[in-house]
Amino acid sequence: MKKLFTILAVICSINGFAQTNTATWHGVLKIAAQELTLQLHVDEAKKEVLLDVLEQGAEGQAMEVVHLTSDSIHVTIPNLMLNYQGKVVGDSILGTFRQGMFKTSLNMARGEVKYNRPQEPTKPYPYQTMEVMFSNKEAGITLFGTLTLPVDYKGKRVPVVLMVTGSGPQNRDEELFGHKPFLVIADRLARNGIASLRYDDRGVGVSDGTFENATTDDFKADAQAGVAYLRNLKMFSKVGILGHSEGGTIAYMLASERKTDFIVSLAGPACRIDTMMVEQINGLASSQGATTKVVQSVADAKRVLKVDNNVWLRHFFELDITPYISKISCPVLSVYGDVDRNVPASMNVPILRQNLSPKKHNITKVYPGLSHMFQHNATGNPMKTMKIEETFSEEVLKDIYTWINSL
Protein backbone atom coordinates (compact mmCIF):
# COMPACT_ATOMS: atom_id res chain seq x y z
CA MET A 1 0.00 0.00 0.00
CA LYS A 2 1.08 3.60 -0.31
CA LYS A 3 3.11 5.05 2.55
CA LEU A 4 0.26 6.77 4.38
CA PHE A 5 1.90 7.69 7.66
CA THR A 6 5.45 8.97 7.75
CA ILE A 7 7.56 10.68 10.36
CA LEU A 8 9.67 12.50 7.79
CA ALA A 9 7.89 13.30 4.53
CA VAL A 10 10.85 13.44 2.21
CA ILE A 11 12.11 11.53 -0.76
CA CYS A 12 15.39 12.06 -2.50
CA SER A 13 18.61 10.46 -3.85
CA ILE A 14 22.06 11.99 -4.38
CA ASN A 15 24.85 10.98 -6.78
CA GLY A 16 27.80 11.61 -4.49
CA PHE A 17 31.05 13.50 -4.66
CA ALA A 18 34.78 13.01 -4.11
CA GLN A 19 37.72 12.29 -6.35
CA THR A 20 35.40 10.68 -8.91
CA ASN A 21 32.84 13.57 -8.65
CA THR A 22 30.14 11.03 -7.77
CA ALA A 23 29.57 9.10 -4.58
CA THR A 24 26.89 7.61 -2.36
CA TRP A 25 26.73 8.25 1.37
CA HIS A 26 24.51 6.85 4.11
CA GLY A 27 23.76 7.65 7.73
CA VAL A 28 21.15 7.11 10.45
CA LEU A 29 18.95 10.00 11.53
CA LYS A 30 17.58 9.65 15.07
CA ILE A 31 14.26 11.33 15.81
CA ALA A 32 13.07 10.53 19.33
CA ALA A 33 12.54 6.74 19.33
CA GLN A 34 12.66 6.51 15.55
CA GLU A 35 15.69 5.82 13.38
CA LEU A 36 15.66 6.63 9.66
CA THR A 37 18.41 5.53 7.30
CA LEU A 38 19.16 8.32 4.85
CA GLN A 39 21.17 7.76 1.71
CA LEU A 40 22.60 10.54 -0.45
CA HIS A 41 23.65 10.17 -4.08
CA VAL A 42 25.82 13.16 -4.98
CA ASP A 43 27.04 14.31 -8.39
CA GLU A 44 29.45 17.19 -7.89
CA ALA A 45 29.94 17.84 -11.61
CA LYS A 46 26.19 18.16 -12.27
CA LYS A 47 25.52 19.82 -8.90
CA GLU A 48 22.81 17.25 -8.22
CA VAL A 49 21.87 15.69 -4.91
CA LEU A 50 19.07 13.18 -4.18
CA LEU A 51 18.00 11.63 -0.85
CA ASP A 52 16.62 8.15 -0.08
CA VAL A 53 14.68 7.52 3.14
CA LEU A 54 15.07 3.76 3.17
CA GLU A 55 12.62 2.78 5.91
CA GLN A 56 9.90 4.59 4.00
CA GLY A 57 10.84 3.08 0.65
CA ALA A 58 11.21 6.66 -0.56
CA GLU A 59 13.78 7.68 -3.14
CA GLY A 60 14.61 9.88 -6.07
CA GLN A 61 13.50 13.45 -5.28
CA ALA A 62 16.14 16.09 -5.98
CA MET A 63 17.29 18.45 -3.24
CA GLU A 64 18.25 22.05 -3.85
CA VAL A 65 22.01 22.52 -3.79
CA VAL A 66 23.22 25.58 -1.88
CA HIS A 67 26.88 24.59 -1.92
CA LEU A 68 28.66 21.49 -3.19
CA THR A 69 32.40 20.92 -3.54
CA SER A 70 34.77 17.99 -3.10
CA ASP A 71 35.02 18.69 0.63
CA SER A 72 31.66 20.15 1.68
CA ILE A 73 27.92 19.96 1.06
CA HIS A 74 24.90 22.14 1.85
CA VAL A 75 21.50 21.01 0.53
CA THR A 76 17.89 21.83 1.35
CA ILE A 77 14.26 20.93 0.71
CA PRO A 78 12.72 24.39 1.29
CA ASN A 79 9.05 23.42 1.42
CA LEU A 80 9.85 20.96 4.22
CA MET A 81 12.21 23.40 5.98
CA LEU A 82 14.83 20.65 5.71
CA ASN A 83 18.53 21.44 5.67
CA TYR A 84 21.69 19.32 5.69
CA GLN A 85 25.20 20.75 5.90
CA GLY A 86 28.50 18.92 6.36
CA LYS A 87 32.19 18.56 5.60
CA VAL A 88 33.94 15.57 4.04
CA VAL A 89 36.60 14.05 6.27
CA GLY A 90 38.14 10.96 4.69
CA ASP A 91 35.35 8.48 4.03
CA SER A 92 32.84 10.35 6.18
CA ILE A 93 30.68 13.45 6.11
CA LEU A 94 30.49 15.18 9.48
CA GLY A 95 27.23 17.08 9.27
CA THR A 96 24.17 18.64 10.84
CA PHE A 97 20.54 17.94 9.94
CA ARG A 98 17.81 20.52 10.53
CA GLN A 99 14.07 20.43 9.96
CA GLY A 100 12.16 23.37 11.32
CA MET A 101 13.23 23.82 14.94
CA PHE A 102 14.66 20.29 15.11
CA LYS A 103 18.44 20.01 14.90
CA THR A 104 20.79 17.05 15.32
CA SER A 105 24.15 15.79 14.15
CA LEU A 106 24.03 13.45 11.16
CA ASN A 107 27.28 11.86 10.08
CA MET A 108 27.43 9.78 6.93
CA ALA A 109 29.72 7.03 5.68
CA ARG A 110 30.77 6.52 2.08
CA GLY A 111 28.94 3.81 0.12
CA GLU A 112 25.45 2.38 -0.25
CA VAL A 113 23.68 0.53 2.53
CA LYS A 114 24.24 -3.19 2.10
CA TYR A 115 21.36 -5.55 2.81
CA ASN A 116 21.51 -9.21 3.75
CA ARG A 117 18.73 -10.92 1.83
CA PRO A 118 19.28 -14.67 2.27
CA GLN A 119 16.09 -15.67 0.44
CA GLU A 120 16.96 -13.91 -2.82
CA PRO A 121 18.05 -16.38 -5.51
CA THR A 122 21.39 -15.88 -7.20
CA LYS A 123 22.35 -16.74 -10.76
CA PRO A 124 22.72 -19.15 -12.40
CA TYR A 125 19.15 -20.24 -11.69
CA PRO A 126 18.21 -23.93 -12.03
CA TYR A 127 15.29 -22.91 -14.25
CA GLN A 128 14.67 -20.91 -17.40
CA THR A 129 13.66 -17.24 -17.47
CA MET A 130 12.85 -15.11 -20.49
CA GLU A 131 12.07 -11.47 -21.12
CA VAL A 132 8.59 -11.05 -22.59
CA MET A 133 6.13 -8.30 -23.43
CA PHE A 134 2.36 -8.01 -23.70
CA SER A 135 0.05 -5.19 -24.68
CA ASN A 136 -2.93 -3.47 -23.14
CA LYS A 137 -4.32 -2.51 -26.53
CA GLU A 138 -7.11 -0.32 -25.19
CA ALA A 139 -4.58 1.81 -23.28
CA GLY A 140 -2.08 1.63 -26.11
CA ILE A 141 0.79 0.49 -23.90
CA THR A 142 3.20 -2.43 -23.80
CA LEU A 143 4.25 -3.99 -20.51
CA PHE A 144 7.52 -5.84 -20.09
CA GLY A 145 8.26 -8.64 -17.67
CA THR A 146 9.98 -11.89 -16.83
CA LEU A 147 8.42 -15.27 -17.57
CA THR A 148 9.88 -17.93 -15.27
CA LEU A 149 9.43 -21.60 -16.13
CA PRO A 150 9.71 -24.43 -13.61
CA VAL A 151 12.84 -26.47 -12.99
CA ASP A 152 13.23 -29.21 -15.65
CA TYR A 153 10.45 -27.72 -17.77
CA LYS A 154 10.12 -29.83 -20.93
CA GLY A 155 7.01 -28.35 -22.51
CA LYS A 156 4.51 -30.07 -20.23
CA ARG A 157 1.50 -27.88 -19.46
CA VAL A 158 1.94 -26.50 -15.94
CA PRO A 159 0.07 -23.90 -13.87
CA VAL A 160 1.18 -20.29 -14.18
CA VAL A 161 0.52 -17.18 -12.09
CA LEU A 162 0.52 -13.57 -13.17
CA MET A 163 1.96 -11.47 -10.33
CA VAL A 164 0.27 -8.11 -9.68
CA THR A 165 1.99 -5.58 -7.44
CA GLY A 166 0.56 -3.45 -4.68
CA SER A 167 -0.07 0.28 -4.94
CA GLY A 168 2.59 2.75 -5.88
CA PRO A 169 5.00 2.52 -8.83
CA GLN A 170 6.81 -0.81 -8.57
CA ASN A 171 9.02 -2.92 -10.78
CA ARG A 172 8.47 -6.58 -11.62
CA ASP A 173 10.16 -7.73 -8.39
CA GLU A 174 7.81 -5.52 -6.33
CA GLU A 175 11.01 -4.03 -4.95
CA LEU A 176 10.35 -2.24 -1.65
CA PHE A 177 12.53 -1.41 1.34
CA GLY A 178 15.48 -3.28 -0.17
CA HIS A 179 13.42 -6.47 -0.60
CA LYS A 180 12.27 -8.20 -3.80
CA PRO A 181 9.30 -10.33 -2.72
CA PHE A 182 8.08 -11.20 -6.22
CA LEU A 183 11.55 -12.42 -7.19
CA VAL A 184 11.59 -14.66 -4.11
CA ILE A 185 8.07 -15.96 -4.81
CA ALA A 186 8.84 -16.63 -8.49
CA ASP A 187 11.92 -18.60 -7.45
CA ARG A 188 9.99 -20.79 -4.98
CA LEU A 189 7.22 -21.42 -7.48
CA ALA A 190 9.69 -22.44 -10.20
CA ARG A 191 11.38 -24.88 -7.84
CA ASN A 192 7.98 -26.45 -7.20
CA GLY A 193 6.58 -26.91 -10.69
CA ILE A 194 4.80 -23.57 -11.19
CA ALA A 195 5.50 -20.92 -13.82
CA SER A 196 5.07 -17.19 -13.26
CA LEU A 197 5.04 -13.87 -15.07
CA ARG A 198 5.95 -10.73 -13.18
CA TYR A 199 6.01 -7.36 -14.93
CA ASP A 200 6.97 -3.73 -14.43
CA ASP A 201 4.00 -1.48 -13.66
CA ARG A 202 2.98 0.90 -16.44
CA GLY A 203 5.46 3.78 -16.53
CA VAL A 204 7.97 1.87 -14.40
CA GLY A 205 11.17 0.15 -15.50
CA VAL A 206 10.91 -0.61 -19.20
CA SER A 207 7.10 -0.70 -19.41
CA ASP A 208 5.26 1.90 -21.50
CA GLY A 209 2.64 4.28 -20.27
CA THR A 210 2.34 6.77 -17.44
CA PHE A 211 1.85 5.71 -13.84
CA GLU A 212 0.67 9.10 -12.64
CA ASN A 213 -3.12 9.48 -12.60
CA ALA A 214 -3.71 5.78 -13.35
CA THR A 215 -6.39 4.15 -11.20
CA THR A 216 -7.04 0.66 -9.89
CA ASP A 217 -9.24 0.04 -12.94
CA ASP A 218 -6.28 0.86 -15.19
CA PHE A 219 -4.01 -1.56 -13.34
CA LYS A 220 -6.79 -4.15 -13.50
CA ALA A 221 -6.89 -3.74 -17.29
CA ASP A 222 -3.12 -4.23 -17.43
CA ALA A 223 -3.43 -7.44 -15.41
CA GLN A 224 -6.28 -8.67 -17.61
CA ALA A 225 -4.01 -8.16 -20.64
CA GLY A 226 -1.35 -10.24 -18.89
CA VAL A 227 -3.79 -13.08 -18.27
CA ALA A 228 -4.86 -13.01 -21.93
CA TYR A 229 -1.21 -13.14 -23.01
CA LEU A 230 -0.54 -16.21 -20.87
CA ARG A 231 -3.63 -17.97 -22.20
CA ASN A 232 -2.61 -17.26 -25.78
CA LEU A 233 0.76 -18.93 -25.22
CA LYS A 234 -1.09 -22.25 -24.77
CA MET A 235 1.74 -23.49 -22.57
CA PHE A 236 -0.13 -23.71 -19.30
CA SER A 237 -2.73 -25.96 -17.69
CA LYS A 238 -4.21 -23.18 -15.54
CA VAL A 239 -3.72 -19.41 -15.51
CA GLY A 240 -4.04 -17.71 -12.14
CA ILE A 241 -3.28 -14.38 -10.50
CA LEU A 242 -1.12 -13.82 -7.45
CA GLY A 243 -1.60 -10.26 -6.23
CA HIS A 244 -0.27 -8.37 -3.24
CA SER A 245 -2.25 -5.63 -1.49
CA GLU A 246 -3.96 -3.62 -4.27
CA GLY A 247 -2.87 -6.46 -6.56
CA GLY A 248 -4.84 -8.83 -4.33
CA THR A 249 -7.90 -6.65 -4.77
CA ILE A 250 -7.40 -6.73 -8.53
CA ALA A 251 -7.25 -10.53 -8.28
CA TYR A 252 -10.66 -10.55 -6.54
CA MET A 253 -12.11 -8.23 -9.17
CA LEU A 254 -10.88 -10.27 -12.15
CA ALA A 255 -11.91 -13.54 -10.51
CA SER A 256 -15.45 -12.18 -10.10
CA GLU A 257 -15.49 -11.65 -13.88
CA ARG A 258 -14.29 -15.23 -14.50
CA LYS A 259 -11.06 -14.05 -16.12
CA THR A 260 -8.80 -16.43 -14.20
CA ASP A 261 -8.68 -20.10 -13.17
CA PHE A 262 -7.58 -19.42 -9.59
CA ILE A 263 -6.25 -16.58 -7.48
CA VAL A 264 -3.86 -16.07 -4.59
CA SER A 265 -4.55 -12.83 -2.72
CA LEU A 266 -1.73 -11.68 -0.45
CA ALA A 267 -3.20 -9.13 1.98
CA GLY A 268 -5.73 -7.98 -0.60
CA PRO A 269 -8.46 -5.63 0.66
CA ALA A 270 -11.85 -7.35 0.46
CA CYS A 271 -13.89 -4.67 2.23
CA ARG A 272 -14.92 -1.04 1.83
CA ILE A 273 -11.73 0.88 1.21
CA ASP A 274 -12.73 4.17 2.84
CA THR A 275 -13.47 2.59 6.23
CA MET A 276 -10.36 0.41 5.99
CA MET A 277 -8.22 3.51 5.48
CA VAL A 278 -9.35 4.87 8.83
CA GLU A 279 -8.09 1.70 10.49
CA GLN A 280 -4.92 1.78 8.38
CA ILE A 281 -3.93 5.29 9.40
CA ASN A 282 -4.57 4.60 13.08
CA GLY A 283 -2.88 1.18 12.93
CA LEU A 284 0.26 2.54 11.29
CA ALA A 285 0.41 5.36 13.81
CA SER A 286 0.00 2.92 16.70
CA SER A 287 2.78 0.69 15.35
CA GLN A 288 5.08 3.71 15.48
CA GLY A 289 4.23 4.61 19.06
CA ALA A 290 1.10 6.77 18.86
CA THR A 291 -1.18 6.32 21.87
CA THR A 292 -4.26 8.09 20.50
CA LYS A 293 -6.17 7.81 17.24
CA VAL A 294 -5.01 10.05 14.43
CA VAL A 295 -8.38 10.03 12.65
CA GLN A 296 -11.91 9.32 13.81
CA SER A 297 -13.83 9.12 10.54
CA VAL A 298 -13.62 8.67 6.79
CA ALA A 299 -13.80 12.46 6.43
CA ASP A 300 -10.77 12.77 8.71
CA ALA A 301 -8.90 10.17 6.66
CA LYS A 302 -9.67 11.99 3.41
CA ARG A 303 -8.38 15.23 4.90
CA VAL A 304 -5.18 13.70 6.29
CA LEU A 305 -4.40 11.89 3.03
CA LYS A 306 -5.45 14.84 0.84
CA VAL A 307 -7.58 12.47 -1.19
CA ASP A 308 -9.00 15.16 -3.45
CA ASN A 309 -5.49 15.94 -4.74
CA ASN A 310 -4.72 12.37 -5.82
CA VAL A 311 -6.56 10.70 -8.71
CA TRP A 312 -5.58 7.16 -7.73
CA LEU A 313 -6.46 7.63 -4.07
CA ARG A 314 -9.78 9.33 -4.84
CA HIS A 315 -10.81 6.38 -7.00
CA PHE A 316 -9.45 3.82 -4.52
CA PHE A 317 -11.46 5.37 -1.66
CA GLU A 318 -14.66 4.81 -3.62
CA LEU A 319 -14.16 1.05 -4.00
CA ASP A 320 -16.14 -1.54 -2.08
CA ILE A 321 -14.71 -4.98 -2.82
CA THR A 322 -17.32 -7.01 -0.90
CA PRO A 323 -19.81 -7.31 -3.81
CA TYR A 324 -17.07 -8.84 -5.98
CA ILE A 325 -16.33 -11.61 -3.47
CA SER A 326 -19.70 -13.38 -3.70
CA LYS A 327 -19.39 -13.55 -7.51
CA ILE A 328 -16.13 -15.52 -7.46
CA SER A 329 -16.43 -19.15 -8.56
CA CYS A 330 -12.75 -20.12 -9.05
CA PRO A 331 -10.52 -21.43 -6.23
CA VAL A 332 -9.26 -18.70 -3.89
CA LEU A 333 -6.35 -18.67 -1.46
CA SER A 334 -6.45 -15.51 0.68
CA VAL A 335 -3.69 -14.96 3.22
CA TYR A 336 -3.13 -12.22 5.79
CA GLY A 337 -0.73 -11.37 8.59
CA ASP A 338 -2.24 -10.69 11.99
CA VAL A 339 0.00 -7.63 12.55
CA ASP A 340 -0.68 -6.15 9.11
CA ARG A 341 -1.33 -2.44 9.76
CA ASN A 342 -2.12 -1.61 6.13
CA VAL A 343 -4.83 -4.19 5.41
CA PRO A 344 -6.12 -5.42 8.78
CA ALA A 345 -7.09 -9.09 8.76
CA SER A 346 -9.89 -8.35 11.22
CA MET A 347 -11.71 -6.24 8.62
CA ASN A 348 -11.22 -8.53 5.63
CA VAL A 349 -11.23 -12.15 6.76
CA PRO A 350 -14.86 -12.14 8.05
CA ILE A 351 -16.06 -10.78 4.69
CA LEU A 352 -14.26 -13.53 2.80
CA ARG A 353 -15.55 -16.27 5.09
CA GLN A 354 -19.10 -14.97 4.81
CA ASN A 355 -19.14 -14.38 1.05
CA LEU A 356 -16.89 -16.98 -0.59
CA SER A 357 -18.59 -20.25 -1.42
CA PRO A 358 -17.59 -23.06 0.99
CA LYS A 359 -15.65 -25.07 -1.58
CA LYS A 360 -12.73 -27.15 -0.37
CA HIS A 361 -10.18 -25.15 -2.36
CA ASN A 362 -11.35 -21.80 -0.97
CA ILE A 363 -8.99 -21.10 1.91
CA THR A 364 -8.61 -17.96 4.01
CA LYS A 365 -5.75 -18.03 6.47
CA VAL A 366 -4.23 -15.62 9.00
CA TYR A 367 -0.60 -16.02 10.07
CA PRO A 368 0.52 -14.96 13.56
CA GLY A 369 3.25 -12.35 13.74
CA LEU A 370 3.36 -11.52 10.03
CA SER A 371 3.20 -7.99 8.64
CA HIS A 372 1.77 -6.57 5.43
CA MET A 373 4.97 -7.70 3.69
CA PHE A 374 4.62 -11.22 5.19
CA GLN A 375 7.69 -10.78 7.34
CA HIS A 376 7.94 -11.74 10.98
CA ASN A 377 7.55 -8.30 12.54
CA ALA A 378 6.26 -8.17 16.12
CA THR A 379 4.57 -4.77 15.86
CA GLY A 380 3.85 -4.67 12.15
CA ASN A 381 5.69 -1.35 11.94
CA PRO A 382 6.58 -0.89 8.24
CA MET A 383 9.54 1.27 9.25
CA LYS A 384 11.26 -1.95 10.35
CA THR A 385 10.80 -3.72 7.01
CA MET A 386 14.17 -2.76 5.58
CA LYS A 387 16.16 -4.01 8.57
CA ILE A 388 14.48 -7.43 8.65
CA GLU A 389 16.52 -9.98 6.68
CA GLU A 390 13.53 -12.18 5.88
CA THR A 391 11.85 -11.12 2.65
CA PHE A 392 8.79 -13.39 2.76
CA SER A 393 7.64 -16.05 5.23
CA GLU A 394 8.73 -19.54 4.21
CA GLU A 395 5.54 -20.95 5.74
CA VAL A 396 3.39 -18.81 3.46
CA LEU A 397 5.56 -19.64 0.44
CA LYS A 398 5.07 -23.34 1.07
CA ASP A 399 1.32 -22.92 1.53
CA ILE A 400 1.10 -21.05 -1.79
CA TYR A 401 2.86 -23.60 -3.97
CA THR A 402 1.29 -26.55 -2.16
CA TRP A 403 -2.18 -25.09 -2.69
CA ILE A 404 -1.63 -24.31 -6.38
CA ASN A 405 -0.31 -27.82 -7.01
CA SER A 406 -3.39 -29.29 -5.32
CA LEU A 407 -5.81 -27.74 -7.81
From TrEMBL:
Residues 1-18 form the signal peptide. SUPFAM superfamilies: alpha/beta-Hydrolases (SSF53474). Residues 185-299 form the Serine aminopeptidase S33 domain. One of its GO terms (molecular function) is hydrolase activity. Pfam families: Hydrolase_4. It comes from the Bacteria. Keywords: Hydrolase, Signal. InterPro entries: AB_hydrolase_Est10, AB_hydrolase_fold, Hydrolase_4. PANTHER family: ESTERASE ESTD. This is BAAT/acyl-CoA thioester hydrolase protein. It comes from Prevotella disiens JCM 6334 = ATCC 29426.
